[in-house]
Amino acid sequence: MKPSFAPGDKVRVVARETATHCRTPHYLRGKRGVVSRVFGTFPNPEQLAYHRIGVPHVPLYQVDFDYAEVWGKAAPNTRISADIFQHWLEADR
Amino acid sequence: MTRAVHDIGGLPAGPIEIAEHERTFFEQRIDAMMRLLAHPTHGYYTVDAMRRAIESLPREDYVGLGYYERWLQAMRKLVVEKGLVSEADIEGKLRSLANEAGQK
């Protein structure tokens, strides 16, 4: 799977509910951020967790979030960074 | 929205206990077993499967057990899933150990 996003791209974490294993923290769902780094592509942990091999491999990004976007109040010099897989991101236009 | 038992970022939870303690022999054994089972040369399961097994423990276990006790419950689940041993094997071994302990 090719990376859809590049550093500087505005993204939004998909506000999806899941009953199965995933690494996307609940507190970031639906939040807007900016891609700061592309780590490469990796086996999908949502499949590895159930003894499958994790294909297709999925691009993984570091996404930075403004503190106020996540927690609703400002905090100077504080940034939240999280590693988010591509299928949990959509373009924020 | 429903949240998984482990996914508590941002929820009120009181102060975090950050004091270190010496690892007990029990904890070291659990750590060693987990690393052997998850090591790629054996590949019985991945760290992701381990996380899933821990995070899908019943809420009372997730909250009530210690860190390595959660690991132990997760390993038990995974070795059975992978067919390394059966739940009956584990129960049988626990019974025989309990009997041995009772005879001492």
List keywords for this structure.
heterodimer, A: 93 residues, mainly beta, SH3 type barrels, five-stranded antiparallel sheet, 10% helix, B: 104 residues, mainly alpha, Cyclin A, domain 1, 5 helices, 59% helix, globular
CATH architecture of chain B: Orthogonal Bundle
**Low-confidence sequence ranges of chain A:** none
Encode the helix/strand succession of chain B as letters. HHHHH
Number of helices of chain A: 2
Give the tally of structural domains of chain A: 1
**Backbone CA Rg of chain A:** 13 Å
Largest interface: A-B, 14 and 17 residues
Estimated helix fraction of chain B: 55-70%
Share of residues in strands of chain A: 35-45%
Number of strands of chain A: 5
What structural class do helix, strand and pairing data of chain B support? mainly alpha
Number of strands of chain B: 0
Order of helices and strands of chain A: EEHEHEE
Specify the structural class of chain A: mainly beta
CATH classification, class level of chain A:
Mainly Beta
Question: How would you state the average pLDDT of chain B, rounded?
Answer: 93
CATH class of chain B: Mainly Alpha
Write the layout of secondary structure elements.
The complex is a heterodimer of chains A (93) and B (104).
Chain A: E1 10-13, E2 32-42, H1 45-48, E3 58-66, H2 67-71, E4 79-85, E5 89-91
Chain B: H1 25-38, H2 47-55, H3 59-64, H4 67-81, H5 87-103
Helix pairs in contact in B: 1-4, 2-4
Account of the 3D structure:
The complex is a heterodimer of chains A (93) and B (104). Chain A has 93 residues and is mainly beta. Chain A is built from two helices and five strands. Chain A has helices spanning 45-48, 67-71, and strands at residues 10-13, 32-42, 58-66, 79-85, 89-91. Chain A has a five-stranded antiparallel beta sheet with strand order 4-3-2-1-5. The relative contact order of chain A is 0.31. Chain B has 104 residues and is an all-alpha fold. Chain B has a single domain (27-103), classed as Nitrile hydratase, beta subunit (Cyclin A, domain 1), CATH 1.10.472. Chain B has helices at 25-38, 47-55, 59-64, 67-81, 87-103. Chain B starts with 24 loop residues before the first helix and ends with a helix. The mean pLDDT of chain B is 93. At the A-B interface, loops of A face helix 2 of B.
